[in-house]
Every structure is written in C-alpha cells, then in structure tokens.
Amino acid sequence: MRFFYEDKSRTFSARQGARLEFGPHLHGHVEIVGMLKGCTSGFIESRKYEITPGDVFIVFPNQIHYYESRMDEHFMLLLFPPEMADEFAHIFNEKIPQSPLIKGALEDELLLSSMKAMTELPDREGNVFREMEQKGYFFLLMGRLLEKLKLEAASPGELATVNLILNYCMSHYSERLLLEDVASALHINKYYISHLFSQKLDMGFGDYVRSLRVSQACRLLEKRSMSITEVAYGVGFSSSRTFNRAFIKYVGMTPRDYQKKQAREGLMHPAFQDYDTP
Q: Which controlled-vocabulary keywords does the entry list (predicted)?
C-alpha cells in the first residue's frame, strides 16, 4: 500500500476524471469527490465507505485517505485550501465530519450544477474573472454541502503529531530512517509513534517507510531520467533486491514493468486523468 504526504500548492483545482484510485495520502487541502457514474471505495484512516452514483465524499485537511476503484467511474474532484474563504476556514481547521460520505447529495440540483460548473470552467487565457467565477460557485456549493454534514470537534494535538512525523519522514526518506531515529529527532516516545501508525494508518512504521520510498520511486521512474538501480539507492533502499521486493509488494509489479506501463498509458496518475466524454 502506497502512502505519502502531498505537499500541494495553495491553489484551487477542479476536474472530472475516470477511475478514481489513489494510494493512502494526506494534505492540507479539502478534497471533495462527486460520483456521477460507477463505484469507488473511499477510506479515511482505514474506515471504508462505498461511494456510489449521486454521492459526495469529503475529506478535511490532514485526514489520511485513499481510494480503490471498483468499476468504471466518472467523477468530479475538487481540491482547495481551507483559507480559500475566511467564512469556512474555521470549520475546516477545527471540525471533522462524523461521516465523510453524503449519500445522494448530487440529487440537490444546485449542488450538482455548481460542482459541475467548477470542473468545466474554461481556463481561457486573459480571463481575469475566472477566480471570481470559481468563488461564486464555491460559496454556493459549500453552503449547500455543509448543511448536509454533521460535524464534530477535531483532535488537533494528534493530527499535529502525525503531520510532524510524516513531514520528517518525507524529508529524510532517502537516509537511514528507523523508528528510534525519528523518535530521537522529534523527541516523541517511539511507542507512541508505533501506536499512531497502528491506529491511523493500520500499518507499522517500517511498512510506512518502505511504502513512502516506493511512492517516491514511482515518481522517479515516471521521469525516466535515472536507471532503476539509481532510483533504488536514491530513495533509500540498501540494495536492488530489497527495492524490487518492496516495489512488487506495494505496486503489484516490478519497477521495470511499472515503467513500461506508464510509458504506454502516460505519466499522469489515473485519478487525475481528464475524463473523455464518449
């Protein structure tokens, strides 16, 4: 299972796509998925939700989440920073939904039309009013969406600790990275770190580090600027053999086969490919 912390830019993005499948990750953005066709399993901190046509799935900042494709999908995906609108920032920073899944939310015609408009808004060169249009649709969407959510107080201390650990690992994944090293560097009890990984990620620290290194290796392999051996050592593996073994475990194929597959299908992750209307 791949897992990583996405350091996203502080900008808004909206798109439609096919085949929503993405490994475990977290970021500082709010993420909204509107399912138009097909079915996807969405996970937040290892809890599974079935996203079916008409449903909306919302992820608040720094929640560990991932998707597993179930059948051919057509979905809308929005990503935006909490500070995009001051009116909502305190909600995203202090609350979390009791359930991220809103069944049948797209039956609300205003909600559906505003979300579609945001994903279809053309990026015309010289269109100085595009951001204003986005914000207009954004306020309409969030007004309709938030009234459908039941919110509860977040646990900022635990989230901050997880974020701190993941950021440290992201910065040092190519070096020796043992549990004891992280605990010593961050002055956090190693048993507490193990507890957090078990509770929030449903995996051990060593599994996480290997999956993080494989995630970074995938990005390097897609660029095709380094040999597979160079990639293996560059992301922190001690040998090509251990790299291959880990890569097959988390990706389901060898690094060479992965590189060939990406060359055939293109470099962009399937979750972010544009949806082609038949």
A: DNA-binding, Transcription, Transcription regulation
